[in-house]
Amino acid sequence: MVQSDHNVTIALGCDHAGFQLKQEIARFLLNQGYQVIDRGTLSDKPCDYPDFAEPVARDVSSGNARFGVLICGTGIGMSIVANKFPGVRAALCSNEFSARYARMHNDANVLALGGRVVGVDLALSILRVFLETGFAGEKRGEKRHVRRLGKISKIERELKKK
Questions:
Q1: Domain extent at residue 34
Q2: Which residues are marked as active site?
Q3: 142 part of a folded domain
Q4: Contact call for residues 112 and 79 (beta carbons, < 8 A)
């Protein structure tokens, strides 16, 4: 099981295609002791994914949340929006291997899931791996990963100046 730090806050967001899965994920996270910020949507009524990806990405970018989880039909739209925000490294994952390496090598802080791609059991397994896996640059001192993230941060700073 996930060993949570009760001070870890996770922001959740979805569109209508991800609503049911978001509800399952929220229940799981709360049962594990995580703090959850639910940014909606609050029903399966059709809506636009950027309206829900934006507040989650802002939460992670600002430090209001340590992690974010975004769910739309495929996860693609949500990940595109989230990656517009400084410091956000959103990874679309449809298996545990991708989730593990998104965290280990990229220090991903937002998990994007496809509500029409993965079922509840697989999504929860992906989420567990995502949350349990540390960044190799911190855990093992693998400098190449830290160097690569530094290059991403440099690009973000340069684009912000324009």
A1: 9-134
A2: 72, 105
A3: no
A4: yes
